[in-house]
Design a protein that fits this description.
Layout lengths: L1 E7 L2 H19 L4 E7 L6 H10 L7 E2 L7 H18 L4 E5 L3 H12 L3 E5 L11 H11 L3 E4 L2 H9 L7 E3 L3 H9 L7 H5 L8 E4 L3 H4 L2 H13 L6 E4 L2 H10 L6 E4 L4 H10 L2 E4 L3 H8 L4 E3 L8 H4 L3 E3 L7 H9 L16 H15 L1
Parallel strand pairs: 1-2, 1-4, 2-3, 4-5, 5-6, 6-7, 8-9, 8-11, 9-10, 11-12, 12-13
Helix pairs in contact: 1-2, 1-7, 1-16, 3-4, 4-5
The chain binds uridine-diphosphate-N-acetylglucosamine.
Uridine-diphosphate-N-acetylglucosamine binds next to helix 1, helix 2, helix 5 and helix 11.
Length: 366
């Protein structure tokens, strides 16, 4: 029996692990001798940042929740490492599978490799080259001790090869986040806000902001929101607010009749809104991928991206973090001159199947 330990900690991990777990369950039903242990580090703990994703995406109850939430980056990393080290010693695995770029990803990869357990990294190889982003540090550390890389793009393959990773460690499989999106698209659910403020298709904008560079400094956040309000004509702005952003927004006390802040939405509700929006304004990485696949214009309020394919092929544009950059992009949107986007290679809903097929190969070889 091959045992795989799967790590999930924060909101953007959950949609990435769901299809992998389902593909492992199928492989098991078909007689392959494989089992998994799901470890939730507890980095995100609210129902609307974690629990609702488990329910909607049919992710089984984690085998353990390490309850390592809060604290500074060092405290969170250390707490997760201490707790996961004990868990992995108690439940040895043939392979630890981590996804994405959050603190839990890096902390658990470190623990696994130090206990001589092979590490697989789903979404390996992407780089923003911006070392001020905690996620970039997490990617660099994780990839430097990963054995098997499951990649989303040719750019990721190139980055890995350039950093000395051997070709036979790289599996170009596509994007598990898109597996979930395509599977769940028929199940998207209208959120309450739709009725409450009378939204209709293509006549509102969705925005999300949570990156430290945008939300940890009051003037930056205020200037951005003001600029967005000024150049979005009469469209309602629906803003599901991340807990990190909520703390600052409270102090800023911004209000405008077209700005509708709501608590973080569930996966099915959030993507219902994105699918029908005129555009999304965000500083998230994952949302640029989802918007691209749904062909919804996406304005990214960052100076760089680790996902260049969402710009080259998708509907994403890099606006930057200077609030003054926003207007020309919004003008282009309202002039209906936004690019339409095209298919992105292997983002086809079958990535998790390819991952599990590759895992069968590497596990059998020992
Ligand atoms: C983390 C990830 C980021 C990801 C984001 C998505 C890292 C370094 N960053 O950032 O890559 O895009 O998640 O959400 O791992 N909080 C709550 N309830 C929760 C979760 C968090 O109130 O369920 C609070 C925390 O207590 C903390 C703040 O939100 O005060 C930030 O949480 P944290 O997990 O440190 O990082 P995120 O900013 O969410």
């Amino acid at each position: 029996m091959y045992n795989i330990t799967i790590i999930a900690g924060a909101r953007p991990n959950f949609m990435k692990i769901a299809p992998i777990i389902h593909a492992i369950q199928n492989a098991k039903d078909e007689g392959f001798s494989i089992d998994f242990r799901l470890v939730h580090t507890g980095q995100h703990y609210d129902k609307n940042m974690s629990g609702s994703f488990f329910e909607q995406l049919e992710i089984p109850e984690p085998h353990v929740n390490l309850e390592c939430s809060g604290g500074t980056h060092a405290q969170q990393t250390a707490n997760i490492m201490v707790a996961f080290e004990q868990d992995l010693m108690d439940h040895p695995a043939d392979l630890v599978l981590v996804v994405g770029d959050v603190t839990s990803t890096m902390a658990c990869a470190l623990v696994a490799q130090k206990l001589h357990t092979k590490v697989a990294h789903v979404e390996g190889g992407i780089r923003s080259d911006d070392w001020t982003m905690p996620e970039e540090i997490n990617r660099l550390v994780t990839d430097s001790i990963t054995n098997y890389f499951f990649t989303t793009s040719e750019t990721a393959n190139k980055n890995l090869k350039q950093s000395g990773v051997h070709e036979n460690q790289i599996f170009f499989v596509g994007n598990t986040m898109i597996d979930t999106l395509l599977k769940q698209r028929p199940n998207f659910m209208q959120p309450a806000i739709w009725f409450e403020i009378g939204l209709s298709k293509r006549s509102y904008i969705v925005m999300t902001l949570h990156r430290p560079a945008n939300v940890d400094e009051e003037t930056q956040l205020k200037d951005m929101i003001d600029e967005i309000i000024s150049h979005t004509q009469d469209l309602p702005l629906v803003f599901p607010v991340h807990p990190r952003t909520a703390k600052i927004l409270e102090r800023l006390n911004i209000s405008h009749p077209r700005l509708h802040t709501v608590a973080p939405l569930s996966y099915l509700e959030f993507n219902y809104l994105v699918e029908r929006a005129k555009a999304v304004i965000t500083d998230s990485g994952g949302i640029t991928e989802e918007a691209s696949v749904m062909r919804v214009p996406c304005l990214t309020l960052r100076d760089n991206t680790e996902r260049p394919e969402t710009i080259d092929l998708g509907t994403n544009e890099l606006v930057g973090t200077n609030p003054k950059n926003i207007q020309p992009f919004l003008d282009k949107l309202f002039a209906n001159q936004w690019k339409k986007g095209q298919d992105i290679p292997l983002w086809d809903g079958k990535t998790a199947l390819r991952i599990v097929d590759s895992l069968k190969g590497v596990l059998s070889k020992g």
